[in-house]
Amino acid sequence: MIHKTWTENNTGKKVKCVHTDAKKYTVENVLSIGKEYEVKNESEEYYFVIDESGKMGGFYKEYFEEV
Question: Which Pfam family, giving just one, matches this sequence (predicted)?
């Protein structure tokens, strides 16, 4: 049930969105190019950040670079 406390987790790192050119999904509505996001959780393929909608979202790491 870790997903219930992700928004309150301390962030270990920040990432910067470098592009929103998604092959399959629409991400330009919830990510802004050039904006820095705090990583709340991470897996091998995804960063979990609070996006522009104010909700937690999991996005491929290819959209970001570490700050």
Answer: DUF6501
CA distance 7 to 41: 9
| Closest C-alpha to 27, from 6, 54, 67, 58 | 58
Find how far residue 59's CA is from the centre of its chain. Answer: 5
Q: Which domains can be identified in the chain, with CATH numbers?
A: 13-66 (2.30.30)
Q: Which residue has the tokens 């979990």?
A: 48
The 10s digit of each residue's pLDDT in 2-18 is 767 777 777 779 999 99
Backbone angles phi, psi at 40, to 5 degrees: -90, -30
Q: What is the pLDDT of residues 45-67, one digit of tens each?
A: 999 999 999 999 999 999 999 99
